[in-house]
From TrEMBL:
Keyword NAD: no
PANTHER family associated with the record: BLR7131 PROTEIN (PTHR41533:SF2), L,D-TRANSPEPTIDASE HI_1667-RELATED (PTHR41533)
Residues spanning the signal sequence: 1-21
Protein source organism: Mucilaginibacter auburnensis
Domain L,D-TPase catalytic: 234-410
Protein name: L,D-transpeptidase-like protein
Keywords, in A-Z order: Cell shape, Cell wall biogenesis/degradation, Peptidoglycan synthesis, Signal, Transferase
Origin superkingdom: Bacteria
Active site feature: 365, 384
Lineage start: Bacteria, Pseudomonadati, Bacteroidota, Sphingobacteriia, Sphingobacteriales
MF-aspect GO terms: carboxypeptidase activity; transferase activity
Entry-linked Pfam families: Scaffold, YkuD
Gene Ontology biological process: cell wall organization; peptidoglycan biosynthetic process; regulation of cell shape
InterPro entries: LD-transpeptidase_YkuD-like, LD_TPept_cat_dom, LD_TPept_scaffold_dom, Transpep_catalytic_dom
Amino acid sequence: MRKLCLILSFLFAFGAMSCRAQVSADAALATEIQAQLDDINLAAQLNFPASVARFYREGKFAGTWVTDNYGQNAKWQALLLIDCVLQYGLSPADYHPKEILYNRLYDIEKTDKLNVAQKARFDIMMTDAMVTLLNYLHYGKLNPNYGQLAIDKGLGLPFNAERSLALILKQPDFKTGMLDVQPRSKAYADLQYKMRQLKGQYDGDCYTVPEQTIRKIAINMERLRWAEINDAEAYVHVNIPSFDLTYHLPDTNRMFKVIVGSPEHPTPVLQSNIEYFTTAPEWKIPASIFNKELLPKAIKNPAYLTENNLTIYDGVGQVENIDAALLNTIAKNSKNYYAKQAAGCDNALGLLVFRFKNIYSVYLHDTPDKMLFKREKRDLSHGCIRVENAALLAELLLKNDAQGGKVAQLKRNLTKEKQQNFVLTQPVPVKLTYLTCLVKDGEIVNYKDIYTLDKSLEMAMYGVSDPVNLR
């Protein structure tokens, strides 16, 4: 009995000493991590230094990847994800490939080759790689709405990578948690599945995948990350290069042909919400059209204004007794004048306009020139989007806004050319995208790069001056 007590006492003392040693090692690691994060030279090597610092500060600077605080599963799955970033349209160069190595983690796990400073640096680099992966999977690398500096500051944004990483580390399946931050749209999922086939399943299997195809898919996955499309909600999606509009509901899609801006007057990429639409709208002529088109035509043809139901206004009101001499005077100081086109079937907006806030002053609208929808290539407008069968879109918006009872009034207004605003109780997200390839029925469908934007995005994403898409 006495011998047993001695053995137990020894084991307890040994365990206590081991525990104290581990606590001491963890404290030394935390101190080193904090010190390295204060080093501006190291911060300059990180993609998201502020986010990484917040992550460690929240966890009292404890090690994440070089300890067993989160078990073995997360750290090795993290390395596997970095190995597979090409399958998500991302570049391995963004994830510290010279620092994050399998053999380095093995040495940390199985040997004493690395000192505390090396362990701390590896831990920090791995955290930055995971924060980067989360941000790039969610926002994209070059999101025009959320710049990388703004994302790193983390102020008031819809997604926070370091907080998400802290939660994912506590989940049983680290990889699934990381990938779950990607866009929730079928268009994105289809492109990502195709990329996984090309860079995972087929790559190296006697199946040559053109680099041009890989990069085309990657830049369009990037664009879909910017769009923040969620198939669980209703939305209106205009894809500029394919000249179509999709009114998406969780259980169905309705397709409409559209006319978009010409290369000289491109339709912008944006996100907003359709708040209301107007029947028989007046059209206030944009200043650029007023100066470059309306005035020259009116000067050349005195009847042009009357024939097109156009009225010119100044700061006081309607300008009367317009002749060629007055028009020439107006042209010399046009900033003090503007024009409106009266409502009617010949109005350039047609009988309907759908309004949503944006800095570009663009909108969706009907058009009197229906024949243009028969063209295959429809980049013809000054930037706004003309919608075929706009009345049906208005009707569907009312019905899905629990305002089906107003459809009859809508139809009467269109018949009688009566102006009225129909306000949606629940504004509908509208997404204007520029996607030059999508996956349809399992196959890649390419659309013409009408604004030649693929080149600049590919150069920015891949850091090249010779894009393969233009070779």
